Amino acid sequence: MRIFTLLVFLFFVSSYAYFGKKNEAQEVFGWAMLLQSPRTVAFEGAGSALQTQDFGAVLMNPALLQGDGLGAGISGQSGDLADWQGIAVFSHPFSIGEAEGRMQHTYGVVDNGKVENLGEEAEPMGTSHPIAQYYAITAAFPLKHFKFGITGRYLWQRLSEIDNAQVGMGLAMDWGFLWNSGSARYGFAFMGRHLGQQIRPFVKGGVNGYALASELALSTFWRLDQNFVWLFECSAPRYSPAVGKLGLEYRFSESLFARAGVQKDLIDAARFGRSIFDKNEKTPRAGFYRLFSAGAGYRFGDFALDYSYSMLIEGQGNEHRVGLSGAF
Question: What DSSP element (H or E) covers 14?
């Protein structure tokens, strides 16, 4: 157990040390952060401290991985900004020596169909089929006062099929701590997401080693009663302003749930608050690319069906996500 604790500490230190401003505005594989389950999106990512059976929550905080026996899930996204995106997962219990935990395997894909290649003078140069994929493996272990989880992810992306183009690759790691408060009314979590770098450029002989769009985050939730829960998260992206996320969930019955969420740059939220009292304060009209999200979930036995709807800013349209998961 001492060796395991040392490994946890080394993972934490190495990932935190990598969080910095090197290669600012040159991050890669940012699409991987947008592959989320309908439930996670309905909260706008604010639910990373709330224990749940939802497989998508593990992508926000590896320490949320839980369950008994085998589990599986699949979700897909379509809308005005994407032809098709989706994730598929499989989870199972495992043990290493005296440490027992749970493991989840996740496959994610982004496929936006064929696009036309244009030359320097906008002349047609044929078509390409850009596609991006990743495989992730997550493990979660209970500790004395916290639950710890870690995810390793291999990313693969093809942007073009023209001469000198090649598949770009990257490696990433997520970690998360979830406080064992012993209470169902509140909880806290601390996460590091998408910490890593590019290991193969998109062009033969191109520049390599760009950092990924990493972030650190703090999250909490407060349950008003057995049916109503508020969720909060504050994240510090590597290349963007700090973001505040707010979500809520209401349980109508043992089977039916309603959800909603919004996220905003903290500086924009502060300006909006000042604009209420100062008419001269300019209120920002854009923050995150989703204006808000809402969704619903239905539980039947060991299975769950989830849906989320997102309205995009500046009249860009909307997004829809549908997911199905179950335990066996």
Answer: helix 2-18
Q: How far is CA 13 from the centre of its chain?
A: 21
Q: Pick from 43, 16, 284: which is nearest to 175 by CA? A: 16
Instruction: Report whether 214 contacts 195 (CB < 8 A).
Output: yes
CB 168 within 8 A of CB 157: yes
Q: Are 178 and 58 in contact (CB under 8 A)?
A: no
Distances (CA, A) of 104 to 67, 90, 101, 267: 11, 6, 10, 36
Q: ∠ at Cα 100 (97, 102), nearest 5°?
A: 130
Dist. CA 240–CA 214, nearest whole Å: 10
**In this structure, are residues 318 and 80 in contact, taking their beta carbons and an 8 Å threshold?**
yes
Give the amino acid at 223: R
Report pTM. 0.85
pLDDT in tens, 236-261: 887 778 889 999 999 999 899 999 99
- The mean pLDDT of 168-187, rounded to a whole number, is 90
Specify which residues 127 forms β-bridges with.
116
**Which residues contact residue 148 at a Cβ distance below 8 angstroms, ignoring those fewer than 6 apart?**
8, 63, 140, 141, 175, 176, 177, 178
Tokens in use for 257? 């749930």
The pair of structure tokens assigned to 245 is 């996320």
